[in-house]
Design goal:
five-stranded parallel beta sheet, Rossmann fold, 34% helix, 120 residues, 4 helices, alpha/beta, single chain, 5 strands
Length: 120
């Protein structure tokens, strides 16, 4: 069965920073603020198991597979045409990734201990 979603999904990137409690709180906040939008989580397989069921769709990070996987990830993010990307990780790789996604969605950086900023 195919769900009916608004045109622009919300993407969260979390690779394990801050622990599963942090991710659970942030994904819950995203779900409340953007009710009705499809929530896509880009994460590692280990982290996906820790927050299972909190996102509508989970994409494997694939960083360990090198540059080709990084470019595939950027292409997939571009094709998703998200309303915005919420970077819950704040790593050098995710900060660089924002410049590889085209067209550029709003990219919100949230570090552990902060709240999700409002849309500008």
């Amino acid at each position: 069965m195919t769900a009916s979603w608004p045109a622009e999904p919300v993407i969260a990137i979390w690779l394990g920073a801050g622990g599963p409690e942090y991710a659970t709180a942030m994904l819950g906040a995203l779900r409340m603020r953007h009710a009705g939008s499809r929530l896509i989580l880009l994460t590692t397989p280990e982290a996906a198991r820790q927050v299972e069921g909190l996102a509508d769709e989970v994409w494997a990070d694939g960083a360990a597979r090198g540059a080709a996987a990084f470019l595939a990830r950027a292409r997939r993010l571009s094709w998703a045409s998200p309303a915005f990307v919420c970077d819950l990780e704040d790593s050098p790789a995710t900060r660089f990734l924002r410049f590889c996604v085209w067209p550029r969605p709003q990219w919100r950086l949230v570090v552990p201990g902060q709240q999700i900023p409002p849309l500008s």
